[in-house]
Amino acid sequence: MSVKITDICIACGACIDECPVEAIVDDDDSPNNDGAYFVYNDKCVECVGHNDAPACADACPTEGCIVWDAVVDGQAFRDDIGEDKRSSHTPVVE
Ligand code: SF4
Ligand code: SF4
């Protein structure tokens, strides 16, 4: 499971310290080198066991920036989020 930061990220930094599992890296460390922050999907647990909802998305000021992505084998994920939302990259905060 994972959430994903899209390229509309303004690299404000509001999300990174909210992540309980240090899954987020800043634009300098992103493997995409696209000026956006990045979520390692093999680290992100969708805040399961930590917060009621993804803390990064709650903190993000950029509407629609953080979206649902595919479930990753072996990782915790929010089972109330359907495949429809994941496959269409629906914003976590709508
Ligand atoms: S959903 Fe939670 S665990 Fe995943 S990147 Fe955001 S803050 Fe970190
Ligand atoms: S809070 Fe949103 S806009 Fe700011 S760095 Fe994180 S993903 Fe990008």
From TrEMBL:
Single GO MF descriptor: iron-sulfur cluster binding
Q: Which UniProt keywords apply?
A: Iron, Iron-sulfur, Metal-binding
Residue ranges of every copy of the 4Fe-4S ferredoxin-type domain listed in the record: 1-29, 35-71
PROSITE patterns in UniProt: 4FE4S_FER_1, 4FE4S_FER_2
Under the heading InterPro entries, the entry gives: 4Fe4S_Fe-S-bd, 4Fe4S_Fe_S_CS
What is this protein's record name? Answer: Ferredoxin
Taxonomy of origin reads: Bacteria, Pseudomonadati, Campylobacterota, Epsilonproteobacteria, Campylobacterales
